[in-house]
Design a protein that fits this description.
single chain, mainly alpha, MetI-like fold, 2 domains, ABC transmembrane type-1 domain-containing protein, cell membrane, MetI-like_sf, transmembrane helix
Length: 480
């Protein structure tokens, strides 16, 4: 690696992206949490939270498809706006001067809502008497934020900052890989952070605009998926379908390869989540009980997996020795227990009354009976929260299948999506059921329709389970 002729350029790009991510992306969740905390309309606040959190549930493959649609030369909304202003279209994903900005911007768009949850939980723990005393002294909202909220958030900010610095060089494989092509060289501009200048009505206006930037990409993709090929290729589609048609969805619904990948993802998500919850609960319960003598050793082993992660090549050799290469079980078994979810469930189990478990033992109930009859029923909120985490991870999994599965029959939906994004033309067997619809579709329309169908399950389920998702984060922050 050190002797590679391009080593200095690769190192320079890695350091710059890590620096930009630290300086630009890290403060965004803090600002969003403070702004959301200032909203007094509960219904509007919950709507904003739902919209801001939603991008985190998308995989990097889906996000890359959305950004490709937005920045497309022919049908992209951004280039349409430039044309309206009399400017020439720009190939954003094909010019090296824009790739760093797109990488950092997409990271902010996807993950800022997730970080906001943590800071909102910290803000909720601030003593309300401090704000009442400040109001008596005549302090305005901005002064209260500066003098009370920010100092109270400082311990949380420092802890997360140290964790962020620890991942300084780890920008994420999927995040970078799905955007790269031979035309983007590693250079770009530094994004400017937006100063916090919103107050009362201005705060609501800013958050409304922010919510629009979160939801408009979905609307644009939906509009393109419902438009004719002529309208898409002519750049006529923005946020409303042009020449409304279902032809793109007819093609996708008739594509056997798509449904095969969809079925793989559904199966992996359902069975993988059940295995994850069973394995995590089986390990977390004994470690949560003070009478278990070896719990410190188990916790140490789990922490080792967090601090030291195996490189790709040794990991591949291990999977090969376990006969998991080109085996669909590789999507489930290696990640049966997630360290973060283990500690969350351990914290929840530790809060259960010890007297209840002692009473069950006196009545002759065994350890497995205690787990399934007492612990699990009392831990439904934690199980639901971690079930969401595991299910979203399985549904959005991409790199594991890319590394270890060579047979297209076992590819999940994310790998199929990425292969579709990489192809400029759609080739179909003349004997296929969708061959007759191919002449009336376009590659872009098929891609957008596939994105909508692949995203729909998570988008539908998420609003109903949002409270469990937030609770799962807060459970892990409680000291047992």
């Amino acid at each position: 690696m050190f002797s590679h002729y391009d080593f200095l350029r690769i190192l320079n790009n890695t350091l710059l992206l890590g620096l930009y991510d630290l300086v630009i992306a890290f403060p965004v969740p803090i600002v969003l949490a403070i702004l959301l905390n200032e909203v007094r309309m509960i219904v509007f606040k919950r709507l904003l939270q739902t919209i801001v959190y939603m991008p985190h549930f998308l995989s990097w493959v889906v996000i890359s498809g959305i950004f490709m649609g937005i920045f497309s030369m022919d049908a992209g909304v951004v280039n349409k706006a430039l044309g309206f202003l009399g400017m020439q279209p720009i190939y954003f994903l094909g010019e090296d001067s824009y790739i760093r900005s797109i990488l950092i911007g997409s990271g902010i768009w996807r993950d800022s809502g997730y970080g906001t949850i943590i800071f909102l939980a910290a803000i909720a723990g601030i003593n309300p008497d401090l704000y009442e005393a400040a109001e008596v002294d005549g302090a305005g909202r901005l002064k209260q934020i500066w003098s009370i909220t920010l100092p109270s958030l400082l311990p949380t900010i420092m802890i997360l900052l140290l964790l962020h610095i620890g991942k300084f060089l780890d920008l994420g494989f999927e995040r970078v890989f799905v955007f790269l092509n031979p035309l983007n060289l590693e250079s770009g501009e530094i994004l400017d952070t937006v100063r916090y200048r919103i107050f009362r009505i201005g705060n609501l206006v800013f958050l409304t605009l922010l919510s629009l930037t979160m939801i408009l990409p979905f609307i644009n993709v939906l509009a393109q998926s419902l438009s004719s090929s002529e309208a898409i290729m002519g750049g006529k589609v923005s946020f409303w379908p042009v020449a409304f048609t279902w032809i793109n969805y007819e093609y996708v619904f008739g594509d056997a390869s798509f449904w095969r990948a969809f079925a793989v993802s559904v199966g992996v998500t359902l069975f993988g989540t059940l295995i994850n919850l069973a394995a995590t609960a089986s390990l977390a319960y004994p470690v949560s009980r003070p009478e278990y003598k070896g719990r410190s050793l188990v916790v140490m082993f789990v922490l080792v997996t967090v601090v030291f992660s195996a490189p790709l090549i040794p990991n591949f050799i291990l999977m090969k020795e376990l006969h998991l290469v080109n085996n669909p079980l590789v999507l489930i078994v290696p990640g049966a227990i997630n360290a973060f979810n283990f500690f969350v469930m351990r914290s929840f189990f530790a809060q259960l009354p010890g007297e209840l478990i002692d009473a069950a033992r006196i009545d002759g109930c065994g350890e497995f009976g205690i787990i399934w009859r007492i612990v699990i029923p009392l831990s439904k909120p934690a199980m639901a929260s971690l079930g969401i985490f595991y299910a979203v991870g399985h549904w959005n999994a991409y790199s594991t299948a890319l590394y270890y599965l060579n047979d297209p029959a076992w590819w999940p939906i994310q790998v199929t999506l990425k292969k579709l994004f990489e192809s400029d033309d759609i080739s179909v067997d003349p004997g296929s059921a969708v061959y007759s619809t191919l002449a009336h579709t376009s590659p872009e329309g098929i891609k957008m329709a596939t994105i909508i169908i692949a995203t729909l399950p998570i988008i539908i389920i998420y609003p109903f389970l949002q409270k469990h998702f937030v609770k799962g984060i807060m459970v892990g922050s409680v000291k047992s």
